[in-house]
Amino acid sequence: MFIKRNNTMTKELSLPDERASVQTFWAITFSILTAIGAQIEIPNQPVPYTLQTFFVLLAGALLGKRSGSASMGLYLILGAIGIPVFTGGAFGLSRILGPTGGYLLSFPIAAFVVGYLVKLRREFWWIMVSTVIGSFIIFTIGTIQLNIVYVHNWVNSIQAGFLIFSWWDGVKIIGVSTIAHHYFRKVNQP
Questions:
Q1: How far is residue 159's CA from residue 122's CA, in Å, rounded to a whole number?
Q2: What is the C-alpha separation between 166 and 177, in angstroms, rounded?
Q3: Partner residues linked to 10 by β-bridges
Q4: Cis peptide before 46, with omega less than 30 degrees from 0?
Q5: What are the pLDDT digits (tens) for 131-188?
Q6: Could you tell me if residue 93 is inside a domain?
Q7: Do 108 and 69 touch, CB atoms closer than 8 A?
Q8: Would 128 be classed as within a structural domain?
Q9: Are strands 49-50 and 41-42 parallel, antiparallel or unpaired?
Q10: How many C-beta atoms surround the C-beta of residue 25 within 10 A?
């Protein structure tokens, strides 16, 4: 990079990007938080109630599209290689390819979309709309895989994999929107 000083061009030293290391730290942190959220479970068949999606949406809102998505990609990689980060301490590709795998596979997509949308506007209502869209992505992809792999009945799949979580995700959406909005107001980001 060059900067202009007294009508002459001078090469500026390139220092390591401190922001990249901070983003990496937070991406790893949100992967861990998502793993913890998976262990906070209310049993329900075939899909339990957990706090995973709370951290997926929050990662997208606070970290942005790239780092939020990367944190959820890391979460999936950790589970795929055998670290017990999924619900009930589960791990492995069989969980990702199984009945609830669609929810897991949607996490990076949802975090990316939420991060993209929240960057456009930081008002509370817009953050809430963004997280509703993120939740819709998670439950749509999750319900599709649930139907294909396990239920084989669209009405039952939508009821058991989507509608049953409406109230629970409404609470998480309000929580994520409140935290993100408060954070943006506190740091006064545009």
A1: 33
A2: 16
A3: 3
A4: yes
A5: 999 999 999 999 999 999 999 999 999 999 999 998 999 999 999 999 999 999 998 7
A6: yes
A7: yes
A8: yes
A9: antiparallel
A10: 11
Element (H, E) at 99: none
> Of all helices (H) and strands (E), which one includes residue 79?
helix 52-80
Query: What tokens were used for 143?
Result: 């319900």
The answer to whether position 40 is within a domain reads: yes
Contacts of 52 by beta carbon, 8 Å cutoff, 6+ apart: 34, 37, 38, 87, 103, 107
pLDDT at 6 over 60: no
Domain span at residue 32? Answer: 14-187
Residues 6+ apart with CB under 8 A from 48: 41, 42, 87, 88
* Residue 59 domain-assigned (yes or no): yes
Please, how many CA atoms are within 13 Å of residue 135, restricted to the half-sphere of its CB?
Answer: 26
| Number of structural domains found in the chain | 1
Half-sphere exposure of 167 (CA within 13 A, CB side): 2
Q: How many residues does the chain have?
A: 190
CATH classification at residue 147: 1.10.1760.20
- Write down the residue that tokens 């109630």 correspond to: 49
